[in-house]
Amino acid sequence: MEIERKLEAMGLVLPAAMQTPTEVKLPFVQVRVRGSRATIAGHGPLKANGTLFEPLGKVGAEVSLEQGYQAARATALAILASLKRELGDLDRVTAWLRGFGMVNAAPGFTQTPAVINGFSDLILDLYGPEAGSHSRSAIGVAELPFSIPVEIEAEVEIAS
Amino acid sequence: MEIERKLEAMGLVLPAAMQTPTEVKLPFVQVRVRGSRATIAGHGPLKANGTLFEPLGKVGAEVSLEQGYQAARATALAILASLKRELGDLDRVTAWLRGFGMVNAAPGFTQTPAVINGFSDLILDLYGPEAGSHSRSAIGVAELPFSIPVEIEAEVEIAS
Amino acid sequence: MEIERKLEAMGLVLPAAMQTPTEVKLPFVQVRVRGSRATIAGHGPLKANGTLFEPLGKVGAEVSLEQGYQAARATALAILASLKRELGDLDRVTAWLRGFGMVNAAPGFTQTPAVINGFSDLILDLYGPEAGSHSRSAIGVAELPFSIPVEIEAEVEIAS
Q: What is the ipTM score, two decimals?
């Protein structure tokens, strides 16, 4: 439980499962494990109780760059919470492989890497440079579900 | 041929290969198989004869939410048609892993998950909750080729 | 070193590592190798010295379709340069699996496949139809980092 000890030492809490704000059905799984690989659904940022992190909206308009960074960090925590529910122990993640960061970008907002760093910095702090390294994209998309400011999809390697 | 029997029982037909509406060259493969994994190119919705499903345009403007859902369902059929051409038998898909849903979203249209459900619902109906479960994202993008309303990329596990 | 001989015969040069135009931190790796698979971070087009390829901006506005094609070709070279740094020899790539092409699209610009062909054509020229074939998407996104016209993420199989 080393990763969870680190989270606790950093004062960070894994959020509860997402409380969707509408009646929308979400007929998919948050984490799909086959063999030593897990693909992770696009996650948004959550508060500790599983409701959507605020403020909602577009980064560069309603949401500042710094708030966007915090949203990407909260998204990393939401992903870790899903992995914990699926795997039981976050130490079973032996390597992060890919992070795909999508920023709900206001027109002209191009500092998308600085936003998604909120995700990458936390993963590297927790897992270190060996297991935590990942390839990454950080793009600006037109719209995101529920007007969340950030959504991140990922892939990890896991111990069998 | 269990999946194809289910398709027939549901009155669904796999479309012919895409007839591109322009002279554009598409120098890639629809399904790339290596070992037990297949990555699937971004597909759009097709009519049975392989021409583009209509209406074209942005969901939330020219295309309604319900039409978007039907387009995502038609996109699932187009993906299944590509898999059938590549694998011979759709039963060789042993697990769906990842669906990446891209909605050609009108400004302010955020109900992208409800659109991409047209894909997920059909895959789950056909393959059931074990093989059919998949991680998923559903985002709004700025533009899609040929003004299609929906494009979906996916990944599956296959029997060798 | 067959691929590098082909590059030389075609008069093509792999660019130096990216010189980021701003003080932004990029805390991720360009290529993540685990076993026989490598995921490749989203790359943009570079000049030989590693600075950003020009013109910057949106394809369909500041950047023409033909310039977008050249940008996608330069992006393929940037990806090959990252693979060379990671793998030592580009012949270790035994199969291209997936290309995910993101075009910084002006409103209404839908010829995104014709842009990303600059990537696919070069990969197929270099690796041939067996190893070079890949599944692909080519979408229009709202914004890209540093206003680059094209970003491409990819995945390859490598010899151990």
A: 0.96
